[in-house]
Amino acid sequence: MRVVHYLNQFFGGIGGEEHADTEPQVHDEPVGPGRLLGQVLGEDAQVVRTIVCGDNYATENMEALTALVLEQTKDAQADIFVAGPCFEAGRYGVAAAGLCVAVSSELDIPVVTGMAQENPGVDLHRQTLYIVDSGKAASAMREVLTKMSNMAHKLASGQDMGAPAEEGYIARGILKDTFVEQTAAQRLVAMLDAKVKGEEFESELPAPSFPEIPAPAPVADMSKARVAIITDGGLVPKGNPDNISAWAATNWGSYDISGKDGLQGDDYEVSHRGYDTRYVEQDPDRLVPVDVLRELEESNVIGELHSQFISTSGLVNPIANSRRLGREIAAQLKESEVDAVILTST
Amino acid sequence: MRLTLAIHQIGSLSLGAATLLDGNKLVVDPEELRLLILEDTRLRSVDIETVSPGEDCRIGVVFDILEPRAKEAGSGPNFPGILDPIGVVGQGVTHVLRGVAVTVVDGGAGLENGKILEMTGPAGEASPYTSLHHLVITPHSAENVVRHSEQASLRLASVKTSVYLAQCALEITPHSAEIFESDGPVVQGREGLPRFAYIGQVHSRQRVAEIDEKILYGDNTAGMVPVSLHPNEWLDGAVVTCNRAMGAETYFYQNHPVILELYRRHQDDEITLVGTLATMAASDNEERDRNCMLAAEHAKWNLAADGVILTKYGGGAPHADLSLTARRCEELGIRTTVQVSDMSWDRRAESALLFNYPVVDAIVYVGGRDTDWDVPAAGRVIAGSGELAEELGAPRRLIATNVCGVSSQQGISRLRAMVH
Questions:
Q1: Which chain B residues touch A181 with a CB distance below 8 Å?
Q2: Where are the domains of chain B?
């Protein structure tokens, strides 16, 4: 197994922060921790090339560095690419993870890196990489390299990867079904017992963490604002012209309401399998309140109702998909100079 | 309240000239049972068959699975509100044919998303039902019977058959007895033990129950607020599943995994089981707010619970009711664990949860979305019609969520989605 190894200037033995601008150097031998890596990898593997680069240079010239690493890795006929471990070093982690992603997708060989949970490289690429949890202490180098070596062998031989805790990598946030010994009921009661007693317990799904979305500035004057309605309740014109799926919809529709004082049940249907849709089908204004907004428009509480309403089906929609739909819808409304949006859900 | 389950362990099931229990051999007279089922004029005929544990047999679409049980005289009604008049269950003696299931086939349901019982192979091994002897009944509707009446006739046939089978054991000494006794929230002499309760959804009004859809003591859950039930009532016929139940069968109300586990720890003096609440998942926000508030307040002030386990019913929306109730419990100082079902269509953990309350932090996650089996043609098929049997019996891909019991929402599932 031929290994190409990436290191920053510090672990590459060039020096600390004062050498962070060092341009990439290529060595046809293991360097620094690469020597230990060669040992733990065993006899059938060798580090054939090492690329060392300063952290600042990497940050500022990622494109050039990536091109060089791809070229050198390919030229070395590498079977596997290893970067780090980077521990808590943020610029190093970001570069290492970025290079791993590039090598994996361009050269289609296994890649391994290691860093601390807190390293920003983890947040960027945890979903696509197996990142060995290195902890923060560089003194654990041998232990971390051993884990990385085990992972390298495992990936190279194409074996199934086990759970994060048993393999030592940072959870990628991907769900995999597994049959376990205890029934759900037993797990529920045991977890409650621990929780009530104040003991440690482990939820089977860690709390989701989503970035905070800052609220935009309030609308200065609603009586001059153009207002649009967006719903994820699946209201569509009869026949569902855009084929919006009744669950996990991958598209959205924009439907003309200009000149309408309200919506008639005969003209619409609902593409959504997650709620009792009868009341909306009877009177779509219950979901998309065109009737009331027209009154507010007439009495000049709002400036104007946007000429289209926007609809999709939110049911069991993956987050990544929802984000894309949101971005697309927002872009279109921005283009239409809409000032405010009313979101109605079910 | 004290319930004694008189357990008759059954080793074989066959059809014969008279219904009787001979040692551990159960014999069923299909003609007598047929006459009983066909008293219901909504039905024109019924097929009655037996299936052995592990047999190469595929059954679908499954309407429900029940354990055969019958109450001793003076012990209270059988399936009150469905079969017998309203009366409290959960006390006295109930005879149980352990090792047997009554499995009811719904001939009016399409195969798409229909529940299947696979008795053999890896899919079968993953199901808690394949080790049982099944008496499979396939009722056929009379002409011009509307769908909800057809479903109501399936429900009636299911409980009739369950009771009919177990009645033959009423005069026979059981192999063993299981005793379930709890004094509820006023229990004395167990100071210092944590007080645990269970809050279980029994329906989701995403699909409004039919007027004759009998779920809780025969009620269809319209306008239902949280109902206090003694744990024994779940085990003894107060609750059955709805007409189209996802991840739930009456068998695991009768053998409720959460309640049995709570009872086990109660009997081992690790906790005190103080009671349960049955709730439904609402169809609008006001109903949801009201029900979640009432359930949590009930757990706090009437059950004085220290900890509550919550389970959901149905699809995605009931997670809102589940988590809101749990959050209110936590705010009242009651610790909670919740069981959710697999909702991540892209297999990303970030898409898995349909709620985000930091205090609802103890989650059991039942998997199912990426477990499936390619099964060969079935040696034997039981379905509602020849056409359906042909379709069902062909080689096909079985998805875990459609195989009875595998991704159960009642607590029996061993399929867990792990975060990798």
A1: 414
A2: 2-402
